Batch of 4 targets.
Target 1
Amino acid sequence: MRFTKMHGIGNDYVYVSTFDQRPPADPAMLAVAVSDRHYGIGGDGLILIMPSERADARMRMFNADGSEGEMCGNGIRCVAKYLYDHGLARASRVTIETGRGVLELDLETDGARVQRVRVNMGLPIFDPARIPTLLPGEPPIDALLRVDDREWRVTAVSMGNPHAVIYVDDATGFPLETLGPRLEHHPAFPRRVNVHVVEVLGPTEVRMRTWERGSGITLACGTGACAVCVAGVLTRRSDHTILAHLPGGDLTLEWPADDAPVFMTGPATEVFSGEWPE
């Protein structure tokens, strides 16, 4: 099986194109195997790049634990780069079918290869049943959530996958490795949740870290950065356009209006290609 290792600001996945080879028989099991950083290729999961009847390609994303996710913001930028760089789509705009529908992506190229990608990530989802969450509010904004003996103020929103945003004084020093798994599996989130701790540096700038559902601490989360942009507007902590500093790099997020989609812009990088034994 031929594969390509790619990352979006450090959020790395193993990519397998099924345009010219058959899909893996058990992608969930394969995701666990290839993601292992000691005995496999190493990555936050597996992403399949597949033919689509509705778009230039279809993307399926599997976390490192084998669970399938609806969307991956950093991953979809890499899918767009793969399509262009490998000659599967050569337009400056491509469409990709995902678990949350067909998304449009605008490519910034140097002529031969994609450098950055701007993604229309779609409308944020506020309906608690669709996030999904049992927290009160539509969406929950600074809702109190008890974990052990402490309460946290959580803003929940979906970008096709569920996110919980918590504002803190120091994102870098926050014990995310402790709180992250507790919130991911909290009963308030029936399908688990991605957890983000956010430090506001100014009205147009934040620093954030992520505990990703099914993968643990990652260097970046694109859908999570979009959720942080939305949460900042909802809680009046930041503006409609922000620069988000993640451990792996920076993303620009735009939520122009309450009835508008969220736009995410960031780089995509191909690392190496190889073959994985059948």
Target 2
Amino acid sequence: MTSIRGPLAHLDSSREELAKAWLVRLIERASLEEIRDLPTDQITLEVPELISDIVRWAADTNGGPYQLSEEQTKRAASLARLRTGGRDARAADLARDVTALQAVLVEALKEEVLEHHPESFAETVEQLLEATGAVQAAAVEELVRARSRVLESQANTDALTGLGNLRHLRRQLAHLVDLHKRYGHPFGLLLMDVDDLKRINDAHGHQAGDCVLMQVAMSVRRSVRSVDIAARLGGDEFCVLAPEQRATSVVVLAERLAVAVEGEVATPDDPPVSISIGVVSCPEHGEDSEALIDLADRAMYRAKAAGERVAVGEPPSAEEVAEEAKT
């Protein structure tokens, strides 16, 4: 960056006052709720730095496109967070905010230029507008990326428990199957069902049933490794994928999960909540996603019928292996 000379130097030295002037403009067109949520302390800290960025970019007369550093991009994107108090922002709102900041800067520049540098007003304003345009582009781009991340997370998350959903599980399962076929990495799959959830719903209402599901999810999250993938498939069914684990290790994990749920989840005036778990692993029980889920499902129901915590899936027969190889 070049050193700041001429009328732009006045803007840089007045950045705190200009930030306050921008805040006044926001307040003038904000609702009472928005005014209450405005993080004035954060604005006082961040917006003057952003103004310095804009002024320095405008003072750089190299003629090339503005290249924002990572830190400068974050400051530009912070306009959306500052304005919305943490709520989702729209690109149109962000554009209005940048326009308001631009108006504050041009107004201050006009006062300075008309008095001391009238011949350079048009050129300086053009540089300033180009710089604020770079800020707006960076802020909107970051806003779109952030919104995309939120939508992707929502598309893969169970709304009640915060675990992954069925869509997320299928994608992760397909990925683990691919890893096994290419590199030979094993993995385990645990399919779980909450016992007697219908009775809990009938006796205490669906709100109590939802509370049980959330408690089960918390127990699962606390009991699995950070690399394991936990998901709620819908209703009272949960699933855990355990990378780099074979059947014997996955059974140990299943037992730990069952004990954790029984010790941590309960409903009023009822015995502890229990779960039934079916366990399979790849490659011991096959290499097809749907076949593994089906085997785990059957093992889970065997455990439930026998009153046991865990049952291991039966390895495929030679005929089933041959049939799978044909597909």
Target 3
Amino acid sequence: MAIVSDRGAGLVARAREGDKHATARLLSVVENEEPGAADALRELYPLAGKARVVGVTGPPGGGKSTLVNRLAGAYRGQGDRVAVVAVDPSSPFSGGALLGDRIRMSERFLDDGLFIRSMASRGHSGGLARSTSRVVNVLDAIGYGVVLVETVGVGQEEVDVIRVVDTVVLVTVPGLGDDIQAIKAGVLEIADVLVVNKADRPGADETARDLAQMLTLGKMRTSWKPPIVRTVAATGENVPQLVEAIEKHRAWAAENGERDRRRRDAARAEVEELLREALVRRLRDRVGEDRVARAVLRVADRAIDPYAAVEELLKET
């Protein structure tokens, strides 16, 4: 059963027909877990799984947004409908995204085949909003053939991106200071394609060599060896080569079984998260807010430790 919008029209049906306003409203329902979100996901989930989902991550200052803009243009040039999910830092006041859709890809706003969504990370670790995977599934299900996920760029915590995307593109640039420290080993391990952006700058050769050396020293998750692509996103230089590298990884992952394994891991993470949320809600309802508040005060006063407080609450449940 389709969910219904404020105007009384089925959001799911209208979004699948390409209505961008309906798509934006549908994503808000899902992202904020408003009434109807579960119904929408139930309706759309069987239709998902067809899109190419690419994550673009890396340290701040790497030119991720410009590169995503170029990638979107390249895929649109191939005839694909493209959605961009940009996970931005949260405003400390409103909780909303600090960087809005209005300042991203302004030259592409009139393209009917491109949809841009900014999401606030809301303090969630891993550089991704907790509902990003659900938003990606919706965009996939309503017919976007390519979904590009750009993460906040908060360093090592970016590893959560692997739970959402099929291919991880890790972006760095020369001249960030200690380039090796800018990309921690934990982040490098999740990369499927490495990009040295702003490759027209001095030091690009050294950065590429450092990355290649790190690949030989580190233990990779699979037999895939991430290629290193040098780009200049500002001009579009070597963006076609980057698209080619992404597509090669996609083909390898499909043949090797890595894509299915990654999607199973993502499904497990999603189910376990929902299970935790449901159990916490039920437990909170049974315990009661007043009892939790009293226990919190006792812990704050050092009358009892947190572990003992939880044990007492559970015993009384």
Target 4
Amino acid sequence: MKYFLGVDVGNTKSHALIADENGRAAGFGHSGPGSWEAVGWRGAQDVLHDIISQALLEAGIAKTEVYGAGFGFAGYDWPEDRPGHVKLVDSLELSNASFTLGNDSLVGLLAGAKDGWGVVVVAGTSNNCRGWDRNGLEGRVTGQGSLFGEFGGGLEVVNRAIEAISLAWSKRGPLTALSQALVNEAGAADATDLFAGLARNRYELSASTAPLVFNIADQGDAVAEEIIRWAGRELGGLANGVIRQLDLENEAFDVVLSGSLYKGSPKLIEEMSQSILAVAPNAYLLPLNSPPVIGGVLLGMEQVELRTSVIRPTLIETTCELLQLKEIV
């Protein structure tokens, strides 16, 4: 029996999955942040070895029984990042395994897209968007967030909310219930204290505050609702850029929605859908409901030319069953 390894390394959690050649999940490993940007190269190596050791132990196999591997790394953004990540993989000594590696968003694309190609839009702590056409040509945005004008993740939603309460405080914009909500969230005395504390680093409002913005929008606050709709339009714009790069405007393909922010409000997806369908009317938006690490296993299988379209349903089913037993999903 041949086995295949998938790895999804992120800035908040890291997963490894082993499955056999029939697509049956056999072992799983998990840990916290594993990106070199979050924990450094030494820390990244430690996390990688840890999660793979867990998966191998549960599967009851040796490294030599792994014949293909697919790695998705948060922090693998530019060509100059490749040597460090290749070194990480080489340190595993998977002597019999052919492997490929790339940005972590791509394993989410493979996990969600039925035909193994299309576009993935990530909306979690921040945002990202990448895609493949049917011939394997890749399109992308920078993945660097607001630095390069890419918005729509949790961090950008919270920053937009802070801007909105600043506009209200200085009477440059409408009043909003976000003002008191963010004051309470930060533990500030009032809006003035909140702004001073944010400026002097006494307070912090991180991406984890994004659900609060969704809650205020659900209560009918027009300012908060517009922030959610703005985020949807921005995420749609990311997808449209990749769609144009890959000449997919007239194609039928999946747009995979990966990340926790999509659980916040249907208004986000409504705006995103309108934006994308105006450019690519045959696109199909679907939430990613299976673990992205599945895409890593599929990538590993493709290295030895297995028919992943046949194996994929079994892999998804057995992986979800395994993780439910572990109470991970």
